[in-house]
Design brief:
Elements: E1 8-9, H1 10-17, E2 30-36, E3 39-48, H2 53-66, E4 69-80, H3 82-94, E5 96-100, H4 104-113, E6 120-122, H5 125-130
Parallel strand pairs: 3-4, 4-5, 5-6
Antiparallel strand pairs: 1-2, 2-3
Helix pairs in contact: 2-3
């Protein structure tokens, strides 16, 4: 798998948006992109909230421009709130978005909001890209 984008951390996103990043959060957001199984894959790591979701939004938009199918590998997401959920729904409305390997916290968020009935969720990137 080859990366076709840069890794963006929440510290970088905060610098651009004027927010604060003190570097002490071990779960700061990071995003990477690659292509696999005919899909654009976006790998999300760390915490996603209103201040850090911009880097993920950019990565998903870029993947959607290049690929009909987009898989979000959410196996490394340590925290997600309504900003993350909103991004998933908006992305789903514009492209064929699939989630792969969501953490228990992300699964719970999807379940309590009913988003798991709208989004395609699979346990692995390979399964998500293949369905």
């Amino acid at each position: 798998m080859s990366l076709d984008g840069t890794v963006i951390t929440s510290r970088d996103a905060c610098a651009v948006s004027g927010g604060q990043a003190d570097g002490r959060r071990p779960d700061r957001a990071a995003v990477a992109r690659y292509a696999a199984h005919g899909a654009g894959v976006v790998v999300a790591r760390g915490s996603y909230d209103m201040q850090t979701v911009a880097s993920l939004a950019t990565a998903l938009d870029t993947a959607a421009e290049k690929h009909r199918k987009v898989v979000l590998d959410a196996s490394g997401v340590t925290f997600a709130d309504s900003a993350f959920l909103n991004l998933l729904i908006l992305t789903h409305r514009t492209t064929d978005l699939r989630l792969a390997g969501p953490t228990p916290q992300v699964k719970r968020l999807l379940e309590i909001t009913g988003a798991d009935t709208v989004l395609t969720v699979r346990s692995t990137v390979e399964d998500a890209a293949a369905c």
